[in-house]
Amino acid sequence: GIMGKSGTGKSSLCNAIFQSRICATHPLNGCTRQAHRLTLQLGERRMTLVDLPGIGETPQHDQEYRTLYRQLLPELDLIIWILRADERAYAADITMHQFLLNEGADPSRFLFVLSHADRVFPAEEWNATEKCPSRQQALSLATVTARVATLFPSSFPVLSVAAPVGWNLPAFVSLMIHALPPQATSAVYSHIRGENRSEQARKHAQQTFGETIGKSFDDAVARFSFPAWMLQLLRKTRDRIIHLLITLWERLF
């Protein structure tokens, strides 16, 4: 799921990361009024992205969204929360985040990201040629990152991105892949744009794929009582199957 205030660039980030243009964007209005389930499909591989309506436009809308968020919470493997790096007004985000925690949300399922890194002070120093922040901007981003990490405790570090120019997107993708539950990593990785993939993300997705297959095999075997000799044979078969599937992983995903 993708959350955050209207205007933080939720849809723009999705479009920059994934292979297909999947979220509508508009520079003036908060265009996501409902939760949109967007199914990405490559061959037989599917991934569902839930683009959630932006908070902070009006108190009335936020109250309506609370009911929606409460209903969707159990379905989401990961909640990517987008905050603008060039603003300090996070009150609406803090309130909604605390509400979700009070509703039983697992803190380890939240990943906080700072968008619009290119607009952080001093915005005029952004290096358009290299598509990266200046030294002073990097210091500003470090300050904002530390503040956000204090306001929104998480199991994962806070990263800054500039989606329109692709800055720091591979690092964000790698963090996202590590934050996902094991059974979801390979499917999500397969939908990532090639320029945003990293060797670290690929290895982690491949490793968790093998671990997931192994766990499924173990769970299936545990349902039955087998003699010792057969269990030994099944373990050998298990290891061979996992090795074969890991070898074929890149063809599968």
Automatic annotation (TrEMBL):
<dbReference type="InterPro" id="IPR027417">
    <property type="entry name" value="P-loop_NTPase"/>
</dbReference>
<dbReference type="GO" id="GO:0002098">
    <property type="term" value="P:tRNA wobble uridine modification"/>
</dbReference>
<dbReference type="GO" id="GO:0005829">
    <property type="term" value="C:cytosol"/>
</dbReference>
<feature type="domain" description="G">
    <location>
        <begin position="1"/>
        <end position="102"/>
    </location>
</feature>
<protein>
    <submittedName>
        <fullName>GTPase</fullName>
    </submittedName>
</protein>
<dbReference type="Pfam" id="PF01926">
    <property type="entry name" value="MMR_HSR1"/>
</dbReference>
<dbReference type="GO" id="GO:0030488">
    <property type="term" value="P:tRNA methylation"/>
</dbReference>
<dbReference type="InterPro" id="IPR006073">
    <property type="entry name" value="GTP-bd"/>
</dbReference>
<dbReference type="GO" id="GO:0005525">
    <property type="term" value="F:GTP binding"/>
</dbReference>
